[in-house]
Amino acid sequence: MNTLMDSSDAHIAQMMIEGATMGITDNIRLVRDYENSNCSEEALALARQVVSYQEKTVESMKKYL
Known about the structure:
By secondary structure, the chain is mostly helical. The protein has one domain (11-64). 78% of the residues lie in helices and 0% in strands. The chain has helices spanning 2-5, 9-34, 41-61. Helix 2 packs antiparallel against helix 3 (41-61).
């Protein structure tokens, strides 16, 4: 719905950056919460990989702003 009003590259990049940033924040919080628990290291590693991917997404979207 949001793209119907403005489908420019900059607007879509902004939405992608905002979504990825929320994901980064949520995943970092979860990793920190579960680091000292009996959570498997594989699950924590996967969450860290997701954060890394999201950070790369943010960086790649900045050129469209």
